[in-house]
Each structure stands twice: as C-alpha cells, then as structure tokens.
Amino acid sequence: MTTTRKRVLSGMQASGRLHLGNWLGALENWNALQTQYDCFFFVADWHALSSNYADTSRIREYVRDMLIDWLAAGIDPERATVFIQSQVSDHAVLHLLFSMMIPVSWLERNPTYKEKQEEIKERDLSTYGFLGYPVLQAADILLYKPDFVPVGKDQLPHLELTRELARRFNGLYRPVFPEPQEHLTKFPKVLGTDGRKMSKSYGNAINLSDTEPVVRQKLKTMITDPARVRRHDPGNPDVCPVYDFHKIFSPLPVIEQINRDCRKAAIGCIDCKKLVADRVVERLAPMWDIRAALTQQPGRLDAVVEDGRRRATTVSSQTMAEVRDAMKI
Length: 329
Known about the structure:
Layout: E1 7-13, H1 20-33, E2 38-44, H2 45-52, H3 59-72, E3 80-84, H4 90-99, H5 104-108, H6 111-119, H7 128-131, H8 133-142, E4 148-151, H9 156-172, E5 181-184, H10 212-220, H11 241-249, H12 252-263, H13 269-295, H14 298-327
C-alpha cells in the first residue's frame, strides 16, 4: 500500500548571486525536505522585477547561476520539481485573477511594504508591482496546492495573506484552494563580513560561486571584536562575527578551543580567521566541483529546466481548469 506524499513549495527571487546565508538558511532545509515531501522549487524571476524593473540586464544570468547553485548544493531534480516561474504562464494568469478581488487595504498593511521602501531608497518602489507582489506570491503558492510552505517567522504575514486570498476565492465562487500551512524553519543568522546580516544589498556576502582565493580574502577582511585592538589584548568571542562562523562550520572541540584561546589572547584574529576559512573552503569545495561540471554542460541544465517546466505545468494547468470552472470564465 502506497501513500501520497504531502507537497511543499518554495522559491527564491533571482535578484543576485546566492551566498552562504541562502545556502544555510534555505537550501540545506530544502535538501532535507525533498527526501520527505513532493517538493516544488522555483526560481522567481518575475518577482525580481518588483524592485529591479529598471535594470533587467542580469536577470537571465542570475536565473542560470541560481539553478547551478541549487544543483551543486544538492537539490535533486529527480526528487523535486525544479522550474523557472516565467516559463509557467499560469502564474501570471492566476495573479491577474487574484488582483481583481483582493482589497487594496490588505496589501497596504503588508509589514514589509514600507520597510523595503525605506531600506531601498535609491529605487522608485511606488509601483503596483511592488505593492502587489504578495498577490503574485499567493498565485505562486496556490497554483500547486501545497500542504506546507517553508518560512521563517518574519514571513508568516505573507503566508497568512495567501490563506486569506484562498478563503476569499473559495467564498466568492466555490472551494478550490486548500489553505497551506507554514513549515517553520529556523534560519541560522549568518553574518556578513561587516558584522551585519549577510545580504546581497549590503555588499558583505560570501557567494557560493566565489572562488577559494576570493572566499579566503573576504574572510580576511571580516570584522572581529572591536574592543580587541592589539594581538595581546584578550578578546570576547560572544561579540565576534568570526566566532559565529566557527559555530556554524567548525567541530565542537575547535569551537571550544577558540573560545578559550581568544579570551586569553592565546590566538590572534588572523589565525582564527584562517582556521575558519579552512572549514568554509572544506564545505564549499564539493559544490565548486559540481558547479564547474554543470557550467561545462549547459545542455544538462536546459534538460532539468525543461523537465521542471513540463511537470509544473501539468499541475498548474489542472488547477487553472478548476479556477476557470469555478469562476465560469
């Protein structure tokens, strides 16, 4: 007797190169999920337009790089459906239909709407696309009727808006959409080289596609305990971003040794950084090998994308048939 696996859906916006934060915060979780669930993972290239509409010159490059990074990090197209959002036109159609019925007030209360406008002041984000991106997000999710959507706690309001749209549609017409539940993920806080959260927009990221010399150089520049000015000054690992990297990448005996030695000034920051750089390179090296092979085999990546488009479209077209029947259009 066989049982149907529950479905999970998640995506990433193609707005830049993936970094360690994306890998540790999302891709490692996806790796685990694909062994347990029927997973759909998509590259959200249309979502990238919500804040990058004025310069689309690198979106195709980012899409391809993202797919290579996914496969290099262990996402398996034999176990998960991997596809590109813009290649499945049903995303746009359902987004249009949802936009006809969602109250503007629902979008204006989105907590990240004002926050992003303040954070990215150099771009004009007073567009419908930016205000309405949660509608596209809801369409992305509901097309595939997932049971779970992996999110951190800060993303729960977005998922609740998706459920509200599902309820509104089901109430106006007839029940079509289930209400997806959150699959809460504890994203590790990965700090960038400047001590802030690692982010493409901050320019403080260590990218998965960086070469070994670049990774080592970036880690050399990483800030440490600001109060430790000289080599013989005792340090405080609790406020040191490099120590945070050790807690992620180094084995427990090394973490404990660094903690003791730093507090006694028995190890300098340069040596501490070199130790963690060795661990980061050790973890990234297998991915670099796979990445290099994929870069030399563009046909393989094209085949993955085409197979993913076909499998995603099979599901999305069935959902859209139900939507049209419910709406009598």
